[in-house]
Batch of 3 targets.
Target 1
Amino acid sequence: MISFTWDWSYAIRVMPVLIDGAMVTLKATAAGTVIAVFGGLLFALLRRSGNVFVSKSAGFFVEFIRSTPLLIQIYFVYYILPEFGIRMTPFLTGVISLGLHFSSYMSEVYRAGIDGIPRGQWEAGISLGMTKLRIFKDIIVPQAVPPVIPAMGNYVISMFKETPQLSAITVLEMMQAAKIIGSEEFRYLEPVTMVGVIFLALSLGAAYCIKLLSRKLPMQGIPMK
Amino acid sequence: MSKPLIQFTDVTKKFGDHIIFDGFNFSVFPQEIVTIIGPSGSGKSTILRMLMTLEKLDGGFIQIEDEYVWHMKKNEKLVPASEAHLRKMRKKISMVFQHFNLFPHMTVLRNVTEAPVHVLKLEKEEARLRAVELLETVGLGDKIDAYPAQLSGGQKQRVGIARALAMQPSILLLDEITSALDPELVGEVLDVIRNVAKEHRHTMLIVTHEMYFAEEIADRICFLEGGAIVEEGAPRDLFYNPREQRTKDFLQSYMSGKAGS
C-alpha cells in the first residue's frame, strides 16, 4: 500500500541525493546553453551564407532538428552513433543533444535579431570596405544580440525543464535520482514532489532574473570604445 | 580634357519590372565635382549606389580609371567580380549617406577608426590620431567619446563625413546628405563639405536638393530624368540659361515649390 501522507523525515533523508541530481541538471543546462548560444549563432550565420548549398543545408538541418522530438535525438546520439564508432558518456551525449536541439531554436532568435538591424548598417560596412565577417562581428552581432537576450533566456529555461529527458539515457540528473529513490523505497510522493518544487523555484527565479536583466540591456548594442 | 576617372558605359538597371536605366552613359573626370539633380525616382541615388557596389548592374560596365568595378579580367575575358575585387575597388570610394548610417554602439572615435584599422590596416594609435584630427576639422573634437545617440543630426552627419574621409578615398559620394536634417542644421554640414572641397580636391559626385549649394560647389551639374541625362553644364548655364524644356520645367517647379513652402 502506498500511503498519501507526507513523510518529512523521508523527505529530509533523500534531499541530499536530489540536490546532487539538481547539480547535474544545472551543469547540463549550463553546458547545453553554451553549445546552444554558439551553435545557434553559427547556424544563423550559415543560413545567411551567400553559398546556396551552405545556406540550404543549414536551413534543412535546423528545420530537421526543430521538427523531431528531443527524446528521439537523445536516443539516436546515445544508441545509434556508437554504431559508427562515436562513443560518448551519457552526460556528454545529453549535453550535446540538448545543446544542438536548442541551438536550432536559438538560431531563429538570432535571425530575428539580425533581420531587425537596418540595411544602412550593412551598407555602411560594405562602403567602408569591410569583409562580411567583420561586418557581422563588429557591427551586426553587437547590435542584434542585446534585444533578443530575453528570448534566449526563455529558451534556456525551456532547456532546463527538458533535462529530465536525459534520464532516458541514465544521466543521474534530478528526475533520475528521484526515480531511483522511489523504486528503492517504494515511495515516489516526496522525491517527485520535491523535484517539481525545485524546478518551479529555479524556473521562476530565472524568469525573474531575465526580467531584471532585460531592463538593463544596452538597446543601442554592446558598446564598443 | 584628361581621361575620365569614372566611366559608366551602357549601364542597365531594373528594380523588378521597373527599368531605371537602359543604356546609361556617364563620366566624371579627375578632381571634378559633379552634382546630379532631378525629380525623385529618376535614379540619382542609384548612380551613386551602383558605383559604391551597393546596387548590382543588370548590364553594362562601370570603370574607375582602367579597372572595372563590377567585373574583372580573367584569361583576357571579363567575368563578374569576386568579393575580393569588389572590396579592392571600394577602397577608392567613400560614401556619405542620407540617414548617416553611423554605428550606434560605437563611440564617435570608433566609428571613424573602425575601418582604417581593419581595412586599411593602420596601427590603432595612428588611426586614432588621424581620426581625432579629422573630427577636429569637422568641429567635433570635443565629441570623440560620445555615442551617436547623443549627437544632433548635423553632428551625426559630420561624423559620417569624417568616417568617409578617414578611408582616404579618391572619390567621395554624397547621397542627399542634408535631406534628413532639420533646416537649421543644413548649413553646418554644407560648410564642412565646402572646406573639404577646398582643401582636398577629391573627385566628388553629389546628389542634392540644395540648388544654391550645387551652384556654388559644382564644376558641372547634370539634370537627370527618366534614366538619362537630359542636360548638363556649368551651374551658371544650366540654372540661368537651360536649353531643354524639361530642365526649365524642373527648375520652374522646384523654385515655385520652394517659394510656396
Target 2
Amino acid sequence: MSSLRVLHIDDEPDIREIVAASLGLDPEFAVRGCDSGADGLAAAAQWRPDLILLDIMMPVMDGPTTLARLRENPQTAGIPVVFMTARAQPREIDHFKSLGAAGVISKPFDPMTLAASVRSQMQPANAG
Amino acid sequence: MIADDEARTSEVAAGMPRNAVPLNTEILQTAILNSADFAIIATDAEGVIQLFNIGAERLLGYAASDVVNKINPSDIHDPHEVIARAEALSAEFATPITPGFDALAFKASRGIEDKYELTYIRKDGSRFPALVSITALRDDQAEIIGYLLIGTNDAAAHLIAANKEIVAAEMFRLAVESCTNGMVIVDGARKIVLVNNEIERLFGYRRDELIDHPVDILVPARLRTEYARHCDAVTIRPETVRLGASLDFFGLRKDGTELPVEVGLNPILVGGSLLVLNVVVDISHRKRSEHLKDEFVATVSHELRTPLTSIAGALGLLAGNAAGKLPEAAARLLTIAYTNSQRLVRLLNDILDIEKMESGKAIFEFKRIEVRSLVEQTIEANRGFAEGCNVRIRLDAEAAAFDVRADPDRLVQAITNLLSNAIKFSPPGEEVVIAIETRGDMVRISVRDHGPGVPNEFKPHIFEKFAQADGTDARKKGGTGLGLSIVKQIVDRLDGAVGFEDAPGGGAIFHVDLPNWARAIRAQSRLFMKSHLRVLLCEDDPEAAIVLVDRLHQEGFLADVALTANEAVARVAAASYAAILVDLQRPDGDGIGLIKQLRAQPQIYNTLLVVLSVDLDPAHDKERPSTLLNIVDWLDTPIDVARLVRVLDRQVAGNGNTRPRILHVDSNPELLRVVAGALGAKAEVMSVDSIDKARRALAANRFDVAVLDVALTVGSGFDLLHELRDSEGDAIPLVVFSPANDNPVFAAQVRGALIKSRTSIDNLIATLRKRLVDISLPSNDKDAA
C-alpha cells in the first residue's frame, strides 16, 4: 500500500517539525518539508506529492504565488493544495478557494487532529 | 502724526520679543490712548479736562495744552445742544440740571451707562458730530474722581450701523473662507454655487473652474450615483446626512487623484430654493493612522501567531502523548502550559475579530435565517466543550422557528460566545438553557445559566473590552475578556440588541434580540424609500404623465418624465433610476423598440422595467388584479446566448441562500439545452417546450425568472406573457424573445398582448414598492459598513 505523500512548504522550521510530527502520528503519511516556495516547486515536480500544505505568508514567494506557479507546471498542476494560514474570515477562505486551493487549515492547528484534517482534504482528489 | 503714534507704540514694546509681550496694562493704555480714531477725554470730578489724547487733538483740532486744566468738555460743544440736553434730562429726572458739564455727565454720575450724540465745535469753528460714551471714574471708596469720555465720528458710526448687514455678510464670508473644512453649496441640479478656500486647496481647482459646474467633477465617477442619491435624499426629506461617516467616500482632485473625505450634507433654504451645503472634511490623516493601526494589529497578530503555532503544536503533541507517556507531575505542568497556549490562541483570534469589526473590515453577508436550526447547530458545536465542563445544554422545548435577517456565521459566533460564557460559569452538573421566543417584531434568543450571576458593580461594564467581573475568577475560566464585547459588536451590526438580567433562582440570562424577517425588510424598504427611489416614466401623453407623476411624488418617489424615446435614452444616460415605467401605448407603436433601446444602455442593464398601461380611473379598477409586466430584457431571435446568460446571471445573483429557479419556455431544443447548461450551476432551470407544459410548471412551482419565446406558437405564446405570475399575482421577471425582422402582423400581435397590461395607479405603486425593495436587498446586503 503506497503511503500518502504530503509536501509541507513553510519558512518556519519549528512549524515544519510540528507538522511532520503531527502527520507522523498516522503511519500512512510520508511528509517532506521545504522552507521556501522555490524549493517547494522543485520538490513538488520531482517528488509528486499527493497533497501540498502551503503557508500563505512567506518571504520572497508567498503562498498564492507558489500556488499559481504550481498550476502553471503540468507536472504539478493537478496536486491538491491546502493553505495554512491565520484565522481566516469566511470571505478570505472563499478567496483562497477561488485561487484554486482545496482547503484552508487555520494556524495554530490541533496537532492531534491534523492528520485527520489533511486526510479529509484528500478525499475529493482520491474519489476523482 | 499717525506714523509718530506707531513709532511710539512700538518703542514701548521694543526690547522684548513680540510673542513674549505680557498683557501689560501700561502698554494697552498707551495703545488705546494713542488711537487716532477716538477722541478720549478724561476730566476730574468737576469736569475740568485732565487728559486729551491724540485722537481728540486730531478730531477736534485743539492741542492738549489748549484745554487741559483749562476748560470742560461742554465748553467745546454746540451750546444749543447742551442746553437742549440739559432740559431733556431735567424733565426726565425731575431735577434741575444746568446746561454745562452736568448735562454731559449727569447720567454717568448716577452710574447709568450713557452714550449720547452731540456736536463738538472744532477749534477752527467747524462742527464735528460725535457719538460719545461717558463713564464715571471712581476710586477705591467708589467716590467719583473724574469722567472718561470716548468720542467717535458720529457719521462713521452711522455708516457702520447702516452697513451692519453688509458687515455681517462680509464677516460670514470671511468665516466661511477661513473655515478649515471645505464647503461646497450646490443647487437642485447639483451645480456648484459656492465654494470656499479650503475646497480650492483640497481639490486643486480655482473657484472659477468650479462655480456653475456640476459638482460631479469633484466626485469620482464610480461614486457619482451614490452621491446623487444622498443629495436627493436630503432634498426630499431635509435632514442632515453624513457621507463617509461610516463608509469610505472620496473626492476627485483636479489632477485625477482621490482624496479620502467625510462629507456632511445639509439642506439649506435660500430665497425659496433648496440648496445643499456639503461640508467636506479631509480624513487622509485619519485614514493613514487607521491604516497604520490595522497594519500593526495584523502584523503583531501574525508575528505572535507564528511562534504560538509552534508552541501550541509542540505542547499539543506532548499532551497527546505523541512523544510517549509523561510522568504524572510533568503531565500536570504540561496541561497548564497547553491550556494556556490555547487561551492565547483564543485571545489573538478575539483581538483580530474586534479589530476587523471596529475597522469596518468585517463583512456581513445578510441572509434569511431560520433561528431555531441555527441555534441547534451551535449547540451541537459546543456540546463537546460543555461535556468537558460537565454541563448540559438544552434547547427550550417551546423554542419555535422564526426567520431573521442576519449573517449566519456572525450570529453563530455571538451565540457561541454567550453559550461558552454560560458553560464556563455554570457549576458542574448544571444545565444551560437556550430559549427562542418572539417579542413584538423582534426574535429573542436567550441563554440561561445557573452560575453566580453578574455582580451588581460590574453590570454597567459587562460589554466593555477586557472587562471581567473578577479578574482572577474569570481568568480561571480561561476567558479573554473580549467575548461579550464581540457579541455586542456583532449584534449592533445585525441591528439587534444584547442584554442580560438576573435569572430567577440564581444565575444570569443573556439575550440577543434580532429584528424578525418582516421587520428587517420593512426597515430596509424605509431606508430604500428615503434614498433611492428615482423612477423614469416613459409616457408620451403629457396629461397622463402629470397625473402619474403627482401620485408618484405623493408616495415619496422622485419621478422624471420622458415623452419620447430619445428623451428616455438621454435620461437614463444622465441619471440613475431605480425603475423605469414604460407605457407601450405609444403613437409610434414601437414600445418594444423602446424597451430594446433602453435595455441596450449599460446604465440600466439591471434596472426594473415595468411595462404599463395605466388606467387613470382608480375607482373603476381598484379590485382588478395588476397586470403589469416586469420585462427584464427583450431579445431578438436568433438569440445572442452570451447576452442572455449575462442577463439571467445578474437576475439570479444575490438571491440569498435559496437556489433561484428559472422557467424557460422555448420550442428550440438546442437553446433549451444551452441555457440549462450555462446556468445549471447557479440556478435550477426548468426547460419546457410547450405552452401546456409551461402552465403545469407554473402551477406547481415558484420561479424567480421566466424566459419566453413568444413566437413559440403565435397567439398562445402571447397569452402566456400574462400568465407568468407568482402565487400572489405579481409578474415574474421576464426575458422575452421575438423575431428580429419586423413582420407587421406579428408586431400588431405583440402590441395587442402588451396593451393587455393594464393596471390602476394603486396597483402600480404597490408593485413598485414591492419590486424595488426586493431588488434592493441583494445589493444592500453586502454592506461593508
Target 3
Amino acid sequence: MGKLRSTFVLFAFAFAGLLSRAGHASLVLALDTNELTKRADHIAVADVLSVQSAWDQSHKKIFTTIELSVVESWKGGTQPASHITVVQPGGTVGDIAMTVFGMSHFTPGERTLVFLRGTTGAAGVVGMAQGKRPMTRDAASGKWTVGLSNSAGLERVSPAGNNKPSTSPAIEVPRSLDDMRGQVQQILKAQP
Amino acid sequence: MPGREGRGLIARLALPALLATLGSWALATPAHAYVRYQLEKKDKAGVFELTGVFEQWKQTCIPLVVYPNDLASEMTTDEVVGAASAATDAWSKTGISGTYLDIELSSSLDVTPVTGQDTYHDIVFKNPWCDAGDTTCQQEALAITSVWAGQTSGTIIDADIEVNAQNDFWADLVTHPALGKQDLQNALTHEMGHLIGLDHNCYTPGSDPVQMVDNAGVLVPDCAGASADIMNDVMYTQAEPGDISKRTLKPDDIQAVLDIYPLANDPHVCPPSGTNVSLATSNDGCHCAVDGAPSAAGALPVLALLLGVAVRGRRSNKRQDARNATSGP
C-alpha cells in the first residue's frame, strides 16, 4: 500500500508540476480573451499587408510598422478593407537588429486576429504578443481557426494588488473563428 | 476502492509506466542543452527566416549600470542593487569558473536615463511606465529586455533591461516572502540570460513561429512536456508563482556560458561604459563545443531520486558608481 501511495503521490507531484507553471520571459500581465477585449480599442481579423522597420528620430530605438487590411471588425468600427497601422518596438534596419523579447511577429500575407490599443493610424498590440492570434485555414472545410498567441517570449503573471498567488488565468486554446467571434461579441455585450 | 489484487496490479503497472516516462524524457534530453538567440531576416517575399547568426558579445567586460531610484517605494536601494549584482555575478566569471565573461555592474542614483542604442547598457526602473499617449509602450509589461546586435556578425552592441516600477510587483522574496509579488533577482537572472544572447530552451507548438534547435542541433522540446532538467533551467520559458529557483544557474545555463564565452577565447577587450562597440564582420566569435548524441546522463540523478521515492515511499526533500558617479546611501 505504501508503494502504491508513494507512486501515485509521485505521479501527482510530477503532473501538478507540469500543469501548474504559469506562463515566462519579458514579464507581462496575463490577459485572457475577456481582458484583451476590454482593454482593446480595436479588435479585428486582418491581413498583414506590409512590415517595415526604421530608427526613431533620436536613432536610439528601432520601431516596426505593420500595415493591416481589415477583413472584419469586432470592436472599433473599422470598415472591411480599411487599414490599421500598428507600430511596435523592435526590428531590423540595415545591419542592426533590435530584439525585444515578447513582441509579436507579423509576416506579410498572414491573416491574424488582433487586439489593438490606440487609433487606426497608430495602434499597438495589447499585452505584447498576447494580443496577436495567428489564424489558419483548413484546406478541406475552408474554415478558419484562431491559434494561440506566441507566448514564448513572455512570462505571464496575474495583476498586482490582489494579494493572491500569480496563477495563470484561463489558458487560451485554439478555436474556430466562429466560436472566437461569438465569445468576443458576448464579452462586448456584457460591457457597460 | 480497488481490492488488494487490484491495488497490486495498479502498483505493478504504475511503476514501469513511471520509469518509461522518465526514461523517455531522459533519453530525449541532450546533456547540457541550451539555445542561443538566432537572428532573423526577411526573405524576398517578406517572410522572416533564421539567419544562422547568433547574438553574442565580443568583448570581455560588459559594463552595466543599474538605476534603483524609481523602485524606492517597493525595495531599498541595497536590495535592488543586491538583486542586480547577484544576477550579473551568476552569469559572470565571478560565478562561473572557466568563462571570461565579466558583467561589471555599477549603480547610479542619477535620474533614470532614457534607454536605447546609445553605448550604455542599463537596468532601469520606470515610474510612470508609459508616457501618456504612447501607443508603442507595452502597458501590460513588467520587464522588457532589448538587445541591439549586428545582423551579419551577431555582435551585440547594446542591451537594456527596463522594469515596470509603477505596479507594486517587486520584492526580495527570500527576505520578504509576499504573495502576488515577483522576486526581482529571479526575474533579472532570467533577463540577464537574454542579455548575453540566450533564448528559451523549449517551444510552444501552435504558438512559436519556429521550433529552434539547441546547441547539439536537436529540436528543442515542447515546453509543456520538457524534461525536469529543462524546466529547471534559468532559460526555461515558464516559472512558478513566487519562483526563486531561477536565481541559481543550472548545468545547462552554465554550459552555455562556458561554450559561448570560454576563458581560452578571452578577447581581452574591456571597453568602459559609453564606448562605441564596433561591429565585427564575421561570426567567428563563438567556438562552441557541441555535445554529441543525446544522453541520459544529465537526468540520471533525477531518475534515481524519483525511483527511490517511488519504491521506498520516502521523500527527499560591483561595484558602486559609474556613469556620472554618484554613491548610494
